[in-house]
Amino acid sequence: MTDETKKPGVSESERAPFAVARSAAKPAGRTLKVRKVGNSLGVVLPKDVLAKLRVGEGDELSVSETPNGVALQRHDAELQEQIEAARRAMKRYRNALRELAK
User: What is the CATH number of domain 32-101?
Assistant: First the structure.
């Protein structure tokens, strides 16, 4: 790529056709190594990441897909129960909800 086709402030990896998707808000600041843990694989999260997630040993994390990859967040058991209750209600009252949606 020549100097005249380079855009200021755009890194080489952002111009690559197969660039890894990243968050628009904040680029990834570190890499984590995948290690064998028993019969599974895992990563060790640094202290500052654990502090941002407000989790410690024994806590659970929720993993969800995003347009940019995956997101980790602290598991909220109360919220999960509310979601399950809503799913049960939607299944039970499926016909009534369909009629109301018309």
Answer: 2.10.260
Burial 45-73 (b: 16+ CB within 10 A, else e): eeeeeeeeeebeeeeeeeeeeeeeeeeee
Which residue spans within the chain are E strands per DSSP? 35-37, 40-42, 61-66, 69-74
**Predicted model pTM:** 0.46
Average pLDDT of the chain is 77
Residues 82 and 76: their CA atoms lie apart, in Å, by 10
Other CB atoms within 10 Å distance of the CB of residue 102: 4
Q: What is the pLDDT of residues 31-80, one digit of tens each?
A: 889 999 999 999 988 999 889 988 888 888 888 899 988 888 887 778 87
Q: Domain extents for the chain?
A: 32-101
